[in-house]
Known about the structure:
Elements: H1 5-11, H2 17-32, E1 38-40, E2 43-46, H3 51-68, E3 74-77, H4 94-109, E4 134-135, H5 138-148, H6 157-166, E5 168-170, E6 184-188, H7 195-208, E7 214-217, H8 224-236, E8 244-245, E9 261-264, H9 266-276, E10 285-288, H10 295-305, E11 315-320, H11 322-330, H12 333-339, E12 343-346, E13 361-364, H13 367-375, E14 379-382, H14 385-394
Parallel strand pairs: 2-3, 2-4, 6-7, 6-9, 7-8, 10-11, 10-13, 11-12, 13-14
Antiparallel strand pairs: 1-5
The structure holds FE3-S4 cluster.
Amino acid sequence: MHLTKEEEQMLDGEQGYAIQKSMEILVALGRIYRAEKLIRVGSVQVAGVSYHNLGDAGLEFLNKLAKDGKVKVLTTLNPAGMDLEDWRKLGISEEFAEKQNLVIEAFRKMGIIISCTCTPYLIGNLPTYGEHIAWSESSAVTFANSIIGARTNREGGPSALAAAFVGKTPYYGLHLEENRVPDTHVDVKAKLKTLSDYGALGYSIGKKVQNKIPYITGIEDADLDKLKTFCASVVTYGAKPLFYMKGITPGSEKQRLPKESIIIQDTDIKEAYESINDDVEAIDFVCLGCPHTSIREIAEIANLLSNRKVSPNTELWIATSRSMKQLADKRSYTELIEKAGGKFACDTCMAVAPLKGRFRSVATTSAKGCYYSRHNDMKTKLGSLKECLEAAVTGKWS
Ligand code: F3S
C-alpha cells in the first residue's frame, strides 16, 4: 500500500503513540484487503463503547490511546452500557457505572462527541452522498451506504478509532465503485405496514441473500423509521451493509437490475415472524428503540400510552439518544411516557446494557433487538408499536 511521507512519519511514531498504533491498524487492514492507499474520511462512528463488551482489557487499551490521541474528524459514539445520567433507574450496579464512566472519560479525552447513539445521522453526524466515512455500527453503516449513499465499510471499534486519529481509512471494499454493484434482485410483493414488518422483511432478505448486495424493488412508501429498522435487520441477518432500494437509494436508477432474482411474498414475512417469535406469553421487558427512536416514534409512543399504565410486572424502556430525549422533554412526551411508567434509556440499548439474567422475555419492534436478546437468554416477541405497548400494559403478549 502506498503511504505518503506524512503517513510514513505517523507510522514511525513521529506524531505520538495513538497515531502510530492507529497507523499500524490501518496499514495491516490495508495490506490484508490490498488497498492501494489511504483516503480521507469525513466522519467516524465508533462502536465498542459498553464496558460490558470492552472489559478491563478494552478500558486499558482506550486509556493508553487517550494519553496523546486526539481525533482529527467529526467522531461520534455508539451506545454505552447504561444511561450516563440516570443509570440507577435502569438497575445498573455502582461497579458497572464506575467502569463505564472511565470508558466514557477516555473517549472524551480523545475529543470524541459523547453522543452514545446508533443513529448519529439523526443528531448531527450526517454524511453527504458519495462521502467516504469510517463507521462501525452495522445498522448505521447500512443506513449511510444505502439510504444516504455515503461510502463506508463495516469497521470494527479499533479500526474506526484508528481512522478518527489519522483522519483516513484504507481504500478498499465498499469505498470502491466496483464493489458496490448489486448482485441479487429482490422483488417485494408482500404487504408491509408496521415497523416490525420492515424488521421481518430485513430478516427474510438477509437470510436469503447472505453476504450479497440486494437491489430491492416493490417498496413504495417507507419512512425513515421503517428504513432504519430495515437497515438494522437486513445486515444482522446476513446481507452486506449495502442495498439499493428503487426510488429511495440515491443512484439506484443508474444500477442495472441483477439477473439473479428472488420474490418476497406475504408468506416469507409470516415465516420471519414465526422464526423470530418464541412461544411465550408473559412479557417482563418491553424495549423500543433499536435503532434508537426518532422524535416521531417517541411522539407515537407518548400518544399510545396516554391514560395507560405499564404493568408492575413489566419494565418498559425507550432507548434513544440524549439529544432526542431533550427534544421529547420540550414537547412533554417525556412527562407522558414517564407518568405511564415507561423509562427512557438514553445513551444505551438492549444489546449493550448488561441485561443477561434480568429478564425472561422481551417484546420489541426490532428484529435486530430480538437477535441480540436471544444472546441474553430472553424469549423474544417481535411486533408493532401497538402490540409491544399492549404487552407493556398487560404484561402479556396477546
Ligand atoms: Fe442500536 Fe443497539 Fe439496536 S446499537 S441498532 S439499539 S442493538
